Amino acid sequence: MSIEAVFIKGKRKYIFCSDEYGSRVLSSVFEHVKKEKLAYEWYHFSAEKREWLEEFLSKQKMGTFLYVVLPYSELYTVQMMAKRIGFSSDETQYIGYGEKWISIFCCRCHELNRAEEQQTELTCHQCRLKLEVSDHYSELHHAFLGYPATG
Amino acid sequence: MSIEPTLFVRITSIEKITKQVKKFTMSSETGKGLPKFSGGTHVSTYLKTRSGLIVRQYSLVSHPDDSTKYEIAVRLSEDSKGGSFYWHQEMKVGDRLQISSPRNHFYLSFKAKHHVFYAAGIGITPFLSMMQDLSAKGQTFELHYASKSEDSCAFHPYIKKHYPIQSHFYFSDQQQRLQITSLENHPIGTHVYFCGPEGFIEQFRIAAGKLGYPESSVHYERFLPTQNKAMKAFKVILQNGSELIVEEKQTLLEVLLANGTYIPYSCRVGRCGTCEIPVAEGKIEHFDDFLSEEQKNEQNCILACVSRGCSDKLVLKI
Amino acid sequence: MKWTGDLAHFPYPFKDSTYRYSNNSIPMKQPLSIEVTPSYKKEMLLKRKLLSDHPERCYQSLLHSMTGQWEIVELVIDHLVSKYPQDFSVKKENNSWIFTNKILDEKIEFIFGEKNSLPCEPLFFISQHVQEDLIYMRQRDDNLYLDAGQLCFPANWSLAFNIGMKFKSIHHPIPGFKEEGLDQRILQFLMRLEAGTPWERLNWSLMAGDRLDTSLETFDQWGRLRKQVTSENAGELVHIRVEVQKLFRLPRTNSILFSIHTHLLALEQLATNSEWVQQFYEILSELPAHIIEYKGISNYKKAVLEYLEKQLQQVKTL
Known about the structure:
The complex is a heterotrimer of chains A (about 150), B (about 325) and C (about 325).
Chain A: E1 13-18, H1 20-25, H2 27-35, E2 39-44, H3 50-58, E3 64-71, H4 72-85, E4 92-97, E5 101-106, E6 112-116, E7 121-123, E8 130-138, E9 143-148
Parallel strand pairs in A: 1-2, 1-3, 3-4, 5-9
Antiparallel strand pairs in A: 5-6, 7-8, 8-9
Helix pairs in contact in A: 3-4
Chain B: E1 7-16, E2 21-28, E3 42-49, E4 52-59, E5 70-75, H1 83-89, E6 96-99, E7 114-120, H2 125-137, E8 141-147, H3 156-162, E9 167-171, E10 190-195, H4 198-211, E11 218-221, E12 234-237, E13 243-246, H5 252-258, E14 276-281, E15 284-285, H6 293-297, E16 301-303, E17 308-309, E18 313-316
Parallel strand pairs in B: 7-8, 7-10, 8-9, 10-11, 12-18
Antiparallel strand pairs in B: 1-2, 1-6, 2-5, 3-4, 3-6, 12-13, 14-16, 14-18, 15-17
Chain C: E1 26-27, H1 40-53, H2 55-58, E2 59-61, H3 66-83, E3 88-93, E4 96-101, E5 106-111, H4 122-127, E6 133-140, E7 143-150, H5 159-162, H6 167-170, H7 182-191, E8 199-208, H8 219-222, H9 234-237, E9 238-250, E10 255-266, H10 267-270, H11 274-286, H12 289-294, H13 301-317
Helix pairs in contact in C: 11-13
């Protein structure tokens, strides 16, 4: 996930999906799109209207590029939705902001534990094993692997 | 290392399906079933002719789950180098030959939400097994198929019968033209597949790129390697010091093998990557579809079956 | 359970006096995915107990792996029956199969391709008859994914965590693997793997103890032995662990079967061959720190080297 939105050239249409804070993050890319007179559409996100977003994204044609800037708490749901609809990683940029929680997969009992992004150690809340957080990530579990803590 | 043809088959029937296309059915010689395959698969056929061994690739057009037989469709090409000519003029029912195991370099996308096939002429062949796979899985697809006329359109009755809603035909003798603008209407999540003459593929590939299709959603199959407009001879130097000349009409692979320098190879169209050779020195012109752009730019390896030297000499690390 | 390794069947893994990560795959001479060794019965007992006591740890599959699972059933049964006809047989009538395992005195009837005709998933069923762990790598778009697997004897990794993962992500924890570009080349190699031409490679590590089931899940049970190794007990306690890994292209789903047969041999048994001791001593002395670390040898490398030195001196004084 990038921190800054990057303009991707050569698309027939650009979609910007964000809340108010996110629109500031997207402003430079948006200016670029406007300057080059490229087709675009804004989608002002609100959590209550998530089904509308699904309908909106499903109507898009090939050649569309999607930018999403949302709080981490919303981002993953939207990301999964766009993927389900058919937006591939080559056709999207996702940027999250705010408080970020990650999941840690316990290597012994497979329980997912919630942790803060910077956390390096924790105790599995199910089997009580002391875990060391690794950077080994599973997309399917949307989680990082927790190894037995050494020492 | 998969140079050796691995399956022994016998021709069990030959059917002329258009003026220029014949369909050949083969069954296993050993009594053991033939391997099942996936949509888009081809086999290499090894023809022992009077002028030497001819290796040609053909898509399997039979059902992927049918292990009792394989079918291929061969179009007699005007400038045949012997392959299609041999199939059309010499092959008889009962003849035996060796073919490779099924290979798939043109497979269906797994993540696609919708598949669209663009075929011109005999380019229809890989799509037949792909459509069978998709309809068995209940996935959506459409076919756009251009041909000179209804008469010369291979598998026209079959496709019309089995995929009446999904298929669209374009016959040039009826002033129907398959336009690249068709690419504008596909919903997000579509993967497109092109097969036909080089010019046809290029036209659609470029158009898809201009519309903003990501490369990963665009698939195409060439049966012959990209032709270098001006093929020039070049020299290679091997580690043992010997120098070999690759004439303009030869490939590096052919020259190495003729010289007794054995290197593993397989597809011979720059697709499988088996014949990759490390290069110590010299400028390489890559014509393959295997190496990534980045790997090509590194200029330190060459696929001997299609790629060439474009400086005076290439120093090979073999 | 005491695991006395079997010297006659031990696949000694070293060729040179140095070791680095590489794609050391070679084409198989005998294209078989399985091997039955004298410890078959004992290992099947252990494997079945693990599968029934810890199904989540030892077995994982994604929904779309079903066709591929059946391909594995067909391939493995084919290999068992053709290599060990006195121990295994199969009777096929259309899709009705009767598989007989004479070693375990079992007879299983099922309808090939029909999931409900077996009490468990097809891959789970067949893995109860072979010593190998069986991993199904599905080709999806331009990548390979671990989409099903039966894994009882892992070398310190978790199938439950890795299920559904891309090839490169699976190998992410191996230090140096990505930096050296090996992950990309091996992925490209696997993607070009062809039906009819299977490959094999050996992988090795050292372990303190003699457990076959060194899963990441049970690390707290077996990992602590690493701290108990001394130069006195290393011969008995430390084992060299070799995986015979085999790779088969499954043509129906254009995917890959990866079978792993794990062999253990105590260092004192290895020491019965003086050439092996010499070579292994040289390799271990020279091994870079990141490989030592990843293979989990750091704690007791010194003790093992001392043990090997002693063995070498004994040979010299004899």
